[in-house]
Amino acid sequence: MIIKTQDMNVEQRTGEREGTLTTLLENSQMHNKSSLFAKITLKPGRKTPYHKHEGDCEVYYIVSGHAQVNDNGSLKDVKAGDIIFTDNGESHSLENIGDTDLEFIALILKL
Amino acid sequence: MIIKTQDMNVEQRTGEREGTLTTLLENSQMHNKSSLFAKITLKPGRKTPYHKHEGDCEVYYIVSGHAQVNDNGSLKDVKAGDIIFTDNGESHSLENIGDTDLEFIALILKL
User: Fold this and answer.
1) What confidence score (pLDDT) does residue A61 get?
2) CA distance A93 to A73
3) Which residues, 6+ apart, have CB-to-CB distance to B14 below 8 Å?
4) Which chain B residues are closer than 8 Å to A57 by Cβ?
5) Chain B residues with beta carbon closer than 8 angstroms to that of A1
6) If DSSP codes are grouped into helix, strand and coil, which group holds residue A11?
7) ipTM of the assembly?
8) In terms of C-beta density within 10 A (0-12 exposed, 13-18 middle, 19 or more buried), how is residue A70 classed?
9) pTM, whole model, 2 decimals?
10) In CATH, what number does A5-110 get?
């Protein structure tokens, strides 16, 4: 099955997380192995809130832009091609510290 | 955990699949829920061989380039942002029909 980018469901987000969330595949299509598989954009200066994963793990793949991640309490810069892996019991947030939109793929796998 | 792109394991591939396979996360890091999580590049004119998935499903996310997919017998063009989902029992191949490298993320989920 092909899903063209223009046919995907896009959620416009406002506030701290200003940007978009594009669902790449529904959880049911992923045989309920995941609870999120999405492309997320964040406007410059915006961020995902710091939160802890319990009962799952999350992967971010940076597609484009420049971000700072809070990786379980440790701050690091990330760019296109980098992976952020937040395992069960760990926490993270991601902030767009560049001048352009930050785009990343987010996948939450249930454990 | 952050994994910088320059620290990832890159396999150079030759022949029909000429390009690279960069492992994004090892299967053990993915709690063995996946059997592949990689960024794959294909040189112009190169392709992944047509193959059937049994006992798992595979997602391709096109990062950049222009490709033709054989989606279970049906030929379709795909570009950046598109998803190809090959479910258990289905088959696919992907050919770079553009002038630049094709880059995509591949994820195989075990069922």
Assistant:
1) 98
2) 9
3) none
4) 30-31
5) 71, 84-87
6) strand
7) 0.95
8) middle
9) 0.97
10) 2.60.120.10
